[in-house]
Amino acid sequence: MQTFNDTYTLSNGIEIPCMGFGTYNAKGGDNLAINKTAIEAGYRYFDTASLYETERVLGQAIRESGIPRKDFFIVSKLWIDERGYQEAKDAFERTLERLQMDYLDLYLIHWPRGTEGDVDWKEKDLDTWRAMEELQAAGRIRGLGLSNFLPHHLENILENCKEKPLVDQLEIHPGYTQEAAVRYCQEHDIRVQAWSPLGRSAMLENPILKPFAEKYGKSVAQICLRFLLQKGIIPLVKSSSMERMKQNQDIFDFEITKEDMYILNNMPQNTWLGEHPDFAIPKKRSNFEQ
Ligand SMILES: NC(=O)c1ccc[n+]([C@@H]2O[C@H](COP(=O)([O-])OP(=O)(O)OC[C@H]3O[C@@H](n4cnc5c(N)ncnc54)[C@H](OP(=O)(O)O)[C@@H]3O)[C@@H](O)[C@H]2O)c1
Which of 7, 119, 198, 239 is deepest in the core (most CB within 10 A)? Predict the structure, then answer.
């Protein structure tokens, strides 16, 4: 990837921008302004989800930009309690209604399983996937993907699907590289995307990363994002200021050496940001309708 506007080709042939803008935790009063600023800063790939309650305002920002819908790459996700055949179809309609759009570029299952009681999660994921495949066949989604699926969750889909997952969105940043899941995805031609690429800003004060920022004359945030780019992983970064949005795009004029990449790949590992797909109880959506 040489510039911010470069794209990867996913396994079904569609082009995906090499960086995206995250909309989690941006549902407050200024969220419309944040999304408009992100569009002005040049972002065209936006990551949302029914859980985030940002679909409605993202759709509004895009409409009011006057830029054609086809120039954007819009990804949304259905939440744990929206899994199931009919549930997924209904969730998709709600998402499109909130976005006021007639198709999605990618639609993802946000989380592979629910709490301990979710014993039939494999079946539920497959029913969900079947509904998503039908929506894609009807021309309403350009591609299908997953989020927080580890190899044992992915295998369930891969062994039973008609349409292969194109992406898997995982928490990844220096200090949390999820090597096993990333390797599995790469072996199966599934493009990895990184959520919380800055560790939700927890990595910015990391004492191991600071000297790298000094060495390359960049910020710690830029080191984190460049690290992901060099690994072929798509960072989905969120910011609320034009200055930081621009800074996060300015990662194409330097290269982290092979030796430094090894060091960054092998930092002491942090845990998930408290949200493990098998071992933590995920949040509930607060509001179906936003
Ligand atoms: N699939 C999933 O389960 C999942 C889970 C979590 C997140 N996500 C996606 O991933 C996206 C990004 O993750 P995230 O929002 O949790 O965390 P993040 O992008 O790692 O970090 C965002 C935080 O970093 C700050 N920041 C951004 N750029 C900066 C810079 N250059 N210098 C200093 N600080 C900077 C932001 O502050 P300011 O806003 O003040 O700039 C914000 O507090 C989400 O928005 C969402 O779309 C997906």
Answer: 198
